[in-house]
Amino acid sequence: MTMSVDLRRCLSDRRGSVAMIFGLSLTVLFGVVGFAVDFSRAHAVKLSAQGAMDAAMMAAARSQSLSDQVVEDTIEKFMSLVDSTKHGAAALSTVGRVLDNGTTVEGEVVLRMPTRILNVMGYGYIDVKIESRVMRGLGNVEIALVLDTTQSMAGSRLDSVKAASSQLVDTLFSLPDASSKVKVAVVPFAQYVNVGSENRNASWMDVPPDTTSTGISCRDTWPNAVLSNCRIEYYTEYNDGVPSPAQREVCDWDGGTPVNVCEPYTWTETWSGCAGARSNPLNIKDEQYSTRIPGIRNVSCPSKILPLSKSVSDIKNNIDAMSANGDTYIPSGLVWGWRSLSNRAPFAESADDPATAGGAVRKYLVLMTDGFNTRSPRYPEGDHEGNDSTLANQLTRATCDNIKADSDSKIEIYTIAFEVTDEGVKDILRYCATPGGAFFDAVDYAKLLSAFGEIGNSVTVARIAK
Fold it and tell me: N or C end of the chain: smaller count of CB under 10 Å?
């Protein structure tokens, strides 16, 4: 009887078991907490580093000269900016690779993070592996270079624009798939845009026939005029709104008795491709070409527009052929850049073809100008011989609004102010740049090159594949 009672007491006494179970439970609990805390820290490091790794790979993929070393150097640069040092993580290894003839860029970095709680259990660190892969390639791209070729661009300015825009063309066509994916239009503009005399009879143009008329013109002359007190007079002259000092000789004169002279004359009206403006608001729209665009005769306009082209030689030859002449009417360049990118009339080069088949087309308009509007349209004449800069500025903003509202074309606008000191002009160009595009204030040639270079890098978008 006593033995059975003692046995029962022994079997029911669990004080030692509880202590052992509690000890084991505490160890497990400590491990779980340590795992949760340290792996949460490791996860934070990975999230932070992954963004930097993806950004590094995109930057490397856009490099002009690409190699394994360039990829590794770019990774290290971006990783040095990662906010992971608060967790004590440090790079253990970095690998960069360029594969598939330059179309694939891969990167891998291993970060070693010291533990805080798991260290007590003998686990002193956690290795965090971050990988990223970028597929280089343009996709389907169409870009219109809308370039100011007014008189104020004469000389080194125009030479700079030719060099910078040609460099952009080289960037666009440097990637492996560019020859079948990229199209570029060149739209030189001044007071007018030249659509090409071959479009005289196009359904969207309204050009009067060239004419020649003859007649007799009579005028008074003063063959016996006497000049005296001749001197040099200094004054300011304006070319495309840009002031410059000038001088001329002026004299006092006695004309004497006038002599009337009559002479035959020949007057010729010819069209050289200069496109005017339809009545507002069609003058700044890409629609309703049953209302045709007036062709303006006997005016000067830039070299001919090049519609979207895949020929690098044609594109660069068109850029090289640009010359500076005329005054500034920015909406003319904008609207023809827009028209060159849409698949509506007047141009059809943006329609589906081998260059755009099999995927969406990204469209960009790059506007470069060195100054403000000095000309405006006149109605109903349809020419750009007006002098209302306020109207022209309003039409510039309205044209940009219309381009942004074109949901079919989805054009991103980049604007470049080249050596512009007028803040009003810069404000208009900032306004015109779309959220996907950008405004560049190019104060000199170096900044101009940088602007075109950044646009090229932005357009040649690579894709994160991993």
Answer: N
| Average pLDDT score over residue span 165-173 | 91
pLDDT in tens, 176-201: 678 888 999 999 999 999 999 999 99
Report the C-alpha gap between 439 and 431 in whole angstroms. 9
Two tokens, residue 169: 């063309």
Residue of 127, 107, 112 whose CA lies nearest to 57 = 107
User: Cα(121)–Cα(144) distance, rounded to whole angstroms?
Assistant: 64
Whole-number Å distance between alpha carbons of 146 and 157: 15
Chain segment 434-456, per-residue pLDDT in tens? 886 689 999 999 999 989 988 88
Which residues lie closer than 8 Å to 337 by C-beta, 6 or more apart?
144, 145, 146, 185, 187, 365, 367
- SS3 of 101, please? helix
**Closest to 310 measured CA to CA, from 177, 148, 453:** 177
Query: How confident is the prediction for the chain on average, in pLDDT?
Result: 85
Which run of H or E residues covers position 169? Answer: helix 156-172
Q: DSSP alpha helices (H): ranges in 351-422?
A: 389-404
d(CA 236, CA 454): 38
Contacts of 311 (CB under 8 A, 6+ apart): none
- Could you report the per-residue pLDDT of 346-360, keeping only the tens digit for each? 988 886 554 444 457
